[in-house]
Amino acid sequence: MVLLHSGVCDRRMWDPQWAALAAAGYRVIRPDLRGFGLSPVADRPYSDAGDVAELLRELGVERAALAGSSYGGRVALELAASRPELVTALALLCPAVPGQEPGPELRSFAEREDALLAAGDLDAAVELNVERWLGPEAGDEVRERVRTMQRHAFEVQLAAAEQVRQTRPEADLARIAAPCLAVSGAHDVPDFRELAAGLPERLPQARHVELPWAGHLPSLERPAEVTELLLDFLRVTVPPASANVSH
After folding, report:
1. Are the beta carbons of 173 and 50 closer than 8 angstroms?
2. pLDDT of 194 over the 70 cut
3. Domain AB hydrolase-1 spans what residues (predicted)?
4. Contacts with 153 (C-beta within 8 Å, 6 or more apart), sequence order
5. How far apart are CA 103 and CA 135, in angstroms?
6. Tens of pLDDT along 134-163?
7. Distance (Å, rounded) from C-alpha 178 to C-alpha 161?
8. What is the pLDDT of residue 168?
9. What domains are defined for the chain?
10. Quick one: which of 151, 182, 196, 163 has its CA closest to 9?
11. How far apart are the first and last CA of the chain?
């Protein structure tokens, strides 16, 4: 079971889930993508999906279920499309999707974030992300956790002497045969709601669930409820064999 974090968090966003998944009998792997958490920025051309595939190879994992939040959902889809033999199931929480074109709301957000970072106002850029991506269920503790993870990512990425451009693998979603749970949040921006809702039309074994209380990061907003949602899906699609965890 590989847990892929969003672009405003790192592996720590899965703190509420990984132990329960391991206790249920899954070997849990939760990496930091490059430039997040404990992983440095890239010093050579790379792809996040390729990194995950290489990690699985290094760990001796021949097949794995993937859970991806937001940007992590895009990475999961890219891996499942480019290496379908590796992926047994997909649980996607408010996922980005390969090839998506941002709508007006996302473009406006990106422009505001870029302007704040260019002006050196890191505090405001962090707060912009906290307010945009967390829904009404998120309390002060969760907001502080996202604030910490987002600030760290900005600091690591802005300190890099050189930004290495990521390459993207071919992502023909029609190649994905694994069962998929696509989750959206009713308080999320329209882009992500529409992308999740549209996946059953693009993947033969996908179903969509919208959470009426959720923003963009439901696994942090109501962690226990999302943990059960993931376990219910996994027990049916990929019953566990043994328990383990890798960070």
Report:
1. no
2. yes
3. 1-228
4. 7, 8, 9, 10, 35, 36, 37
5. 20
6. 999 999 999 999 999 999 999 999 998 677
7. 40
8. 78
9. 2-246 (3.40.50.1820)
10. 151
11. 12
